[in-house]
Amino acid sequence: MFKDNSVFDAYVSISPTLAPEMASRVPMRLNTFDKQIFYQLIVEGEQTDDTPQIMALDSGIKALNKETLHYYFDKYDKADHISVATYGIGKAFDNVFGMFKPISPKEYKTQILTSDEPVYQYLENKYQGIVDLFGFSKPVELNDIMAIYAAVRKKEDFESLKSLSELCKREYPDTMMGFYFEGEYYEQMGEPKKALKTFEKAFQMDEIDFLTKEMALEKMDALKADFGF
Predict the structure, then answer these.
(1) Model pTM?
(2) Which residues span the domain enclosing 81?
(3) Whether 147 contacts 108, CB under 8 Å
């Protein structure tokens, strides 16, 4: 980690015995990184001679205010110096690779709905983070699209709906999803003619997940009835 170019992007420190001054040097080093970096500190419950230094390290890292640093601290009260590794490694890997997992109900409630940013920004940040950290693009999962769509409707963030529709056209080009979302966007923006034409395009494409041709047809009939098209 102290090399000019850090070999790794994620570090897991399990019940460490720290060299002198490392409790302060590690936070200082972590603060210099501009790239995404993960650091997980795992300790057992029993007190040892190393405990004060470890807790000083924890405090030093927690004091950092750095968006690119992802820090996790876990203490397992029932573990000893030997067994603590079996308690902590699985969770550490889960923290590092968590962005690969679909958006969970907890993530939806605690991170997306509570954020002040546009809803679509969350999805964009998640998949750009995968590119930045792991060096490749991951196809956007249908589960994640539906979570963002639900949040768009919940928060009435219809500008994000337009961005989401463009993403769906790229990721699921043969399905009605992109045009259906775009039709809803025009509907909310007070542009019924554009909405009608867009729902007509959605009707001609393949159904996907909960979106059906019948839903597109209902949208079209409602617009015709309301505006006399």
Answers:
(1) 0.75
(2) 10-96
(3) yes
